Amino acid sequence: MKKKARADKNYKFTKKKHSGPGAVALVLSFAPLLMFVYAVWVSYTKNGQAPETIGCIGIAAMLAACVTLSVSVREARRENIIKKVPVAGAVLSVLMLAGWGAVYVLGWIGQ
To answer: Angle at the Cα of 39 (from 72 to 106), degrees rounded to 5?
Structure first.
């Protein structure tokens, strides 16, 4: 059996660093998910009779997702940084925007 060369280990030595604002955007991109959980809790405790409260929570969550998406995209475009963290924040923000958009569309259709 032939031994693999050390170059096949995919080691990469670089001076790239993690983006601080990108990491903050990743952490803050979980805020719309937490707001969704809170909205479900409010809806459950009010027996589904809290449309204004849930609407406000949803708008705040969509604004938070837009802000984190813009910061994540801006940081992902920078050079000499590791792009995994800002890209993960951008993907999570897009998923949250899609989820909250679906909640609003289903709310409009249901009425």
So the answer is: 85
Q: 11 in helix, strand or coil?
A: coil
Is 94's pLDDT higher than 90?
Answer: yes
Tens of pLDDT, residues 98-108: 988 888 888 78
- List b or e across 12-31, with b for residues whose CB sees 16 or more CB atoms inside 10 angstroms: eeeeeeebebbebbbebbeb
Task: State residue 63's pLDDT score.
Answer: 92
Q: Which residue shows structure tokens 């984190």?
A: 68
Name residues whose C-beta falls within 8 Å of residue 28's C-beta, 6 or more positions apart in sequence.
64, 67, 68, 89
